Amino acid sequence: MMGWELLVPWQPSPTVVVAVLLSAFLYWRGGRRVRVSWSRRVAFWGGLGLIYVALHTRVDYYAEREFFVHRLQHLALHHLGPFLIALAVPGPTLRAGLPVGWRCALRRLLAWAPVRIVVDFLTQSVVTGVLFVGLIWLWLLPGVHFYAMLDVRLYRLMNWSMVLDGLVFWLLVLDRRPAPPARLKPAVRVLLLAAVIPPQVVSGALITFSPRQLYPLYELCGRAFSGIDARTDQTVGGLILWIPSIMMCMAGAVLALYFWYRISERRERTGGVPRRVSSMAGWAPRRRPEASTCRE
Amino acid sequence: MSPKPDAREQPVRGRRIAAALCLFLLTACSRSGSSGWKLTDIRGHLPDLAFHLSAAGGVPVTARQYRGKVVLLFFGFTHCPDTCPETLARLAAALRQLGPEAREFRILFVSVDPRRDTPEATERFARAFSPQAVGLTGTPDQIEAMAKRYRVAYEAQAPDRAGDYEVMHSKGVYIFDRAGRARLLDSDTDPVAALVRDLKQLAAAPS
Prior knowledge:
Structural class of chain B: alpha+beta
Helix content of chain A: over 70%
Number of domains of chain A: 1
CATH superfamily of the largest domain in chain B: Glutaredoxin
Number of helices of chain B: 5
Distance between the termini of chain A: 49 Å
Largest interface: A-B, 33 and 39 residues
Oligomer: heterodimer
Number of strands of chain A: 0
Strand content of chain A: under 5%
Largest sheet of chain B: 6 strands, mixed
Radius of gyration of chain A: 20 Å
CATH class of the largest domain in chain B: Alpha Beta
Helix content of chain B: 25-40%
Low-confidence stretches of chain B: 1-7, 29-33
Structural class of chain A: mainly alpha
Largest sheet of chain A: none
């Protein structure tokens, strides 16, 4: 089962295709109008490609059958893919890819009260951290995991929630800008990345060292690899849940520290007055009044 | 332009939404311990019973023919050394304990090895365990469609020197009520008494 067959989606989903194609198109179109360094392009395409492969290829089949592949899939959807996309700082490029009228509409939408309320809530530091770890824990509760793997609608909800929450989290914590216009202060970003590490260690260790079978559904519905027994699958899955995600959070913390250092260094150089930075990651600034003009 | 109009309201709003999230988490946690079934309740989580397969003699069969009976669906292959015979024996023992009520049930044994298993061979294999057992198989496409529908895996392993091979397949037994709705999931770790009790309850339930 090699070659092109690996790319055929196990369960085709028009939503995934539309979302990925739309993002790709906007980024490509924006990349022709705005100068984007090659490293950021690589990061964006790498992250988007990784998310697509994890969601919409044969990998999905194996993720439904083996716990450790499911953990690898979620590592790509919740950590690595969004991490790369956040490093690419895709906001300005994506916005440049929108037609002008749509850009104005987007700005108005982001300034609309209900949207602002939801965005304000989701981008509070505590809520961000709780959601990031909470979703990992939620979908790993044995009762919830059983039904998520059995029911195709819950399964899709699980994967989508991981992707979207991963994007929100990593876009917030890997923001390079000072606090307004960024949502979180530089120190809070670093603290958040540090704070989400212990819960992931706990969940990873609990699953790796658990003596009982936590997820019997993989046995019941049939495995993909005969050479791997349930015990090994759970242990390896627990290790994947534990170690690579911790390493990514630590790498993220180092990056966030570096960005913080750069911001404070720039402040010192400009004598305490921060330079006016353009809105880069595309979040609506918290205190701006209704947009009076919609500039290009 | 007031500096932070939401500053005081945010904690309150945030707390309310957090409370709603906790409620949702709690309901999710308690979902598996639901009403009165000893086996795992999967009501509403799998599609209704539907398939296009072949019975002995190449007769095409669909799920409609089993409406009105409680169906125990199970995937395997006739060359299976242990899992399939054990499961079929277990299901047959449960049906025997039900006495004359066993007529209301059908065990559907679907072979996922169409290369070796003809419909007749599958029927013979299943019928050896219980008069209510039916052996079915189909073309590879039909079996794949059904496996995808019920999210089960099966994969033929590499053949040994004699050309024999095992097929890895699911172990669970899917139980559908008389209207064809997926209701329960039985595994080999559940005691036979629990299976018998739930089957009785399902047969008595109005469909």
